Amino acid sequence: MTDRLLTWTLGAATLMVASLIAIIAAFLLNESLGMLNRVELGRFFTDSGWSPTMSRFNILPMIVASVLLMAGAVIVAAPLAIFTAVFLRFYAPSPVIDIGRRIIEVLAAMPSVVYGLWGLVVLVPIIAAWQQPGASLMAGILVLSLMIFPTITIVVHSGLAAMPRHYIEASQALAMSRAYMVRQVVLPAVRASIAAGITLGAARAIGETMAVMMVTGNIVAVPGDLFDPVRALTSNIALEMAYALGDHRGALYISSLLLLSIVILLVLINEFIVSNKLEH
Amino acid sequence: MDRITEATSYIQEQDSSSGNICLCTESLCLSYGTRAALENVNLRIPSRAVTAIIGPSGSGKSSFLCCLNRMTDLCCSTTIEGSVRLGEHDIHRDLGKNPIALRRRVGMVFQHPNPFPFSIWKNLALPLKHHGVRNKQELSSVIEQALRRVGLWEEVGDRLRDSALTLSGGQQQRLCIARALVLEPEVLLMDEPCSSLDPLSTKCIETLIGQLKNSYTIVVVTHDLAQARRVADHVALFWNADGVGRLIEQGPAARVFQHPEHELTTSYLEGQL
Amino acid sequence: MNLSFRINSNIDSNRVASLIGLRNGQLWDLLFSAAVWGSVLIVAMVFLWLVGDVLIRGVSAVSWDFLVSPVIDSGRSGGIAPVLVSTACIVAVALAVAFPLALASAILIAEFLPRTGTVSRLVVASFDVLAGMPSIVFGLFGNALFNQLLGFGYSLLSGGLTLACMVLPFMIKANVDGLRAVPRSYREAGDALAMSRTSTLWHVLLPAALPGIIAGVLLGMGRALAETAALLFTSGYVTRMPESLMDSGRTISIHIYDLAMNVAGGDRMAYASALILVVLLILINTAVVRLGDWIQRRSLRA
Ligand SMILES: Nc1ncnc2c1ncn2[C@@H]1O[C@H](COP(=O)(O)OP(=O)(O)O)[C@@H](O)[C@H]1O
Ligand SMILES: [Mg+2]
């Protein structure tokens, strides 16, 4: 009897938690609906600019900025992370391995405001000395790549640790050098983990708000080059939510829906990669 | 008394007939951390013949094999004393810090088939490319010959781009042998190459070993005595004494199987009969 | 010398030998190893720079007074006492709400659902989406549900509840791992003694999984402490000492953000607060790692 009660309780709690994502989506939709009924969806991409108080809702520059920030961060961070994971698995002397992994875990848990603070106080002035104004796409990419570096490293490293040992034995018995083995056998063998790490890092990058907002200058425009200031979708919400009313508020909720769908897409890709790996 | 003289003379006869010794170990001791795994192994492995290493499990057969191509380097806490001589070189002293040159000369096949998770072609091409064969035609011809030699060409020649993991266990093991052979080693070490295979594949590999011994020195670990009888020219028996592996008997296969010198050998062979 | 090839009947080994003799791969090997060491060096230096920066600039402003004084002049002087209290309240609300839900879901997932079943995969996928959802989106959701619909307004309660949703997937994962690390024999022992599943769970499994459960709580705490964006529009950023959970208040992360972005000359205090936050997180992380090692040792022993 108690067993049945227990199962029901657990089931109810899990159902609640598992449906949380649906509840969240429902709330976001509900807040957006009023506006979606009044304003055509196409206008978010074709309006003459972003000034929501004057009914101009073009969020395209911010989408472009978010995507550029994400892509840039992945391009910078992924190679560094892959090499670092390889280092920890195949190159590091044994006392370094544990410390290195600890440090990476701490870095992964570091709050984004701390990265943002460092970016704002240290990095932006350095970039500004080189190319005004400093707070730019470039600064955002660099700070974001620092933030997603530990995420990618952890995923790739656990892939390397889980790789069957006999691949290494076989390579060694075939007189391969360490570098050749890593390049030609190990990295291709863990490509699923690498892809998973990159999608996870990308999801983190596109969802990041604070660090990006602190270093990118937050000007709504499609950047001409790396040193132009940009405003990400997330920053836009954080900056304007405090005073947004009516359609303006609706527009912000619609951009949050967009963010949510991008993340769901990335998670689905990730799931696909992982489940394919399992079958393999 | 009589038997021993006979056996000794037989050894001398064999030694002079088969000529040179390819690999030999002198007072070889191996320990993992503080635990000794092998003690005082003096084994002579003649060229171009099959030497079978037999013995109960845990007697250090695999460990011994790993000493011969320095796979022991992979475990960080191993210590090796004594020497292993390949030709006139001491593989630990003369070949220095880098075991790559050694492993080029001493290939290895493992107990479980371990092809890389890539295509059949890539499995064979990787070691070749590493050692400088880049020309596509050269690669093709070497790969074809290697596959022909292990009898795989007829079976998979038309699907070299398929994943090696789609092959059957026996085919995978033959692919691994082919992969070891493309580098043209002098010695081929095989650690229980048939223990995870079905009888047909086993037979196939035994035949292959019989062919390969004309060109290679083969050391094969097996705990299947019948197999040792079928393939071996020379036999070495390892025994686990107080947790430490020792070599207790070696010699030409016919002599060891018919007139074992050591009483443990006798009982081991009889236990199996 | 002896590295040359033996003549072989089947393969034209001279040709292979002359080809193999050239090791043009060595250049690539060298480049690759250089890339590995180079990357690690770059990364290590940048992070040393970052952490050193926070440490050096932070230490000069941290003192006991800093911890116990009220926020004065938007944070340019004074301390962070009310901020610490608000932080503690928000984190406490988040954990108090998330913990029972997380534990219940974890028990169901680890003990009752088949690991590879459709239900379990769906549930896990929904947690993955939750875990990857941008925190600002949680902020918008929290604002719509807790601040407006439920009428909690900008308050510690709204902030805490929003964070509870956010830390749930992480806590669940840690709890599931903790439960799965409990040796199978414990469950069999329970069955053998004809205990009901409830009492096996209560008297055997949960105590055994305690380290994993504590690790989950700590992990959730770390997440909650580090969060900023989800709180901007739920808990608000009032600097007064809160009197109840219905008061607005700012966490230490928001304080750092506000000082750095909106307060001219606030950098020094921002760094001091950042130092406190980083030290807290490192302590939490150390505890999690210790517990993790403990769990692993035990599951290896069993
Ligand atoms: N990598 C290793 N680390 C520690 N001990 C090992 C290792 N490999 C083998 N041993 C130990 O060495 C002994 C001999 O093992 P092994 O060479 O595998 O024997 P066999 O192949 O004859 O069965 C065993 O007691 C085994 O536990
Ligand atoms: Mg063995």
Can you identify the CATH class of the largest domain in chain C? Mainly Alpha
- At the fourth CATH level, what is the homologous superfamily of the largest domain in chain C? MetI-like
Determine the fraction of residues in helical runs of chain A and give it as a percent range. Answer: over 70%
Integer average pLDDT of chain A? 91
- Quick one: how many beta strands of chain C? 2
- CATH class of the largest domain in chain A equals Mainly Alpha
Shape field of chain C: globular
What is the gyration radius of chain A calculated from CA atoms?
22 Å
Output the strand order for the largest sheet of chain A. 1-2
Amino- and carboxy-terminal Cα gap of chain C: 54 Å
* Integer tally of domains of chain C: 2
Which structural class is indicated by helix and strand composition of chain A?
A: mainly alpha
Keywords:
A: MetI-like fold, two-stranded antiparallel ribbon, 13 helices, about 80% helix, globular, C: about 300 residues, mainly alpha, MetI-like fold, two-stranded antiparallel sheet, about 75% helix, disordered N terminus, binds adenosine-5'-diphosphate, binds magnesium ion
Question: How does this model look, in words?
Answer:
The complex is a heterotrimer of chains A (280), B (273) and C (302). By secondary structure, chain A is mainly alpha-helical. Chain A has two domains: 2-38; 44-279, MetI-like fold. Chain A has helices at residues 2-18, 20-38, 43-46, 60-91, 94-109, 112-130, 137-162, 165-173, 178-189, 191-207, 210-215, 233-240, 246-279; strands at 50-51, 56-57. Chain B is an alpha/beta fold and 273 residues long. Chain C folds into two domains: 2-59; 64-301, MetI-like (MetI-like fold, Orthogonal Bundle), CATH 1.10.3720.10. Chain C has eleven helices and two strands, in the order αααββαααααααα. A two-stranded antiparallel ribbon of chain C has the order 1-2. In chain C, 49% of the residues are buried. The interface between A and C is large, with 80 and 84 residues. The complex binds adenosine-5'-diphosphate and magnesium ion (MG).
